[in-house]
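Readers outside the structure-tokenisation community will struggle with the description of the input data as it stands. What matters is that the chain and its backbone geometry are given together, residue for residue. For illustration, here is how one protein appears when written out as sequence plus structure tokens:

…
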Amino acid sequence: MEQAKGIIIPVWADYILIPEIFYGDKLTGIYFETHDDQFGRITFDNLDAIKICRGENLPFEDDDKVGQDVVWVYKIENSEWLKERFKYENENYGISYEFGGDVSEMLTDFSHYVFKFHDQFVEAIARGFWFEKDAASMFKRAFKDGHPFLPLLQMNTKSFQVNGIKCKAVFNPLDMEALVQHTKYCPQKLIEFVIEFEGEYSSICQTLIIMQRQNQLTSVLSPFMGRPEFAKSGIATFEEVKPFVDKYIREVAERRRQTRK
């Protein structure tokens, strides 16, 4: 049976005002005023689908309890919509899903979310979401510094070379405890591996992320395209993933060598 499980986030939408929904690029999201007269934004990691429905009451049973903190964001357990979306993606894009990715990730990594407003609720299927708050409207503004969807700032890095190609490992400066807590909302980057091209470190080839996979903390080395070759329960280290990064860079070196022939 489908059930709405409340998610507490530190941004509360105004209960009376309705949101603005923007769809079209990486800034696709829910834009709204907050309960304390500021402005909020919800954006999505790997959004698959979004819909807006009229209605004051959620069409799902929920676990709200009298006296608990304010809840306006929910995750739907046993979602029929998520199953329908997986069936569609699998039947139409099975072997070509996400440029060679694994379509089964929809069942292990994606969730069905509901955001409740006055006489309206917004539903989304995505790998996660993130929230922001500001004194001014955030409509279509660039992500704020520290947003988990942005590339990591190259502050804490480790350099190495593989087959003549220079690479930097860029480490997330945030405290590990905070990063683990943030996986309740969306995957968090631990390390980005950036290779040098034409004198600049601008090409992110692989990213080590931590995420909640079926309610278990999991590390995944995510390539730019294709299926991950490394995943493990818990928090992976630089030393554990480096052999897989080295293998990828050797393949890049070979492709560059071939193009020079």
